[in-house]
UniProtKB/TrEMBL annotation:
<dbReference type="GO" id="GO:0003700">
    <property type="term" value="F:DNA-binding transcription factor activity"/>
</dbReference>
<dbReference type="Pfam" id="PF12840">
    <property type="entry name" value="HTH_20"/>
</dbReference>
<feature type="domain" description="HTH arsR-type">
    <location>
        <begin position="1"/>
        <end position="96"/>
    </location>
</feature>
<dbReference type="InterPro" id="IPR036388">
    <property type="entry name" value="WH-like_DNA-bd_sf"/>
</dbReference>
<protein>
    <submittedName>
        <fullName>Transcriptional regulator, ArsR family</fullName>
    </submittedName>
</protein>
<dbReference type="InterPro" id="IPR011991">
    <property type="entry name" value="ArsR-like_HTH"/>
</dbReference>
<dbReference type="InterPro" id="IPR001845">
    <property type="entry name" value="HTH_ArsR_DNA-bd_dom"/>
</dbReference>
<dbReference type="InterPro" id="IPR036390">
    <property type="entry name" value="WH_DNA-bd_sf"/>
</dbReference>
Amino acid sequence: MPSEAAVFAALGDETRLALVKRLQAGPASIVGLTGEANISRQAVTKHLHVLEKAGLVTCARLGRTTVWQLERPKFDDARHYLDIISRQWEGALERLRVHVED
């Protein structure tokens, strides 16, 4: 199972974020993703494999076409992780506020 670090590393690239945004509308083939990305099919494929390794997308063969789609549960896991970090920061900031005001 990919770690949270792998997920956030995969999402740390502008092109991969654009692919994720496009896939939010629904599954798409490499051809569909390439036209909107303004990069080669090979580059799109490499980015999709990074996202796949992080558990964020999956692919399926439909005849001769490979269709890519988001793995929504992995995004839910990332959101949960960010919620935990957010609560930790809120607690730390509250402790700092109390300390400074004393």
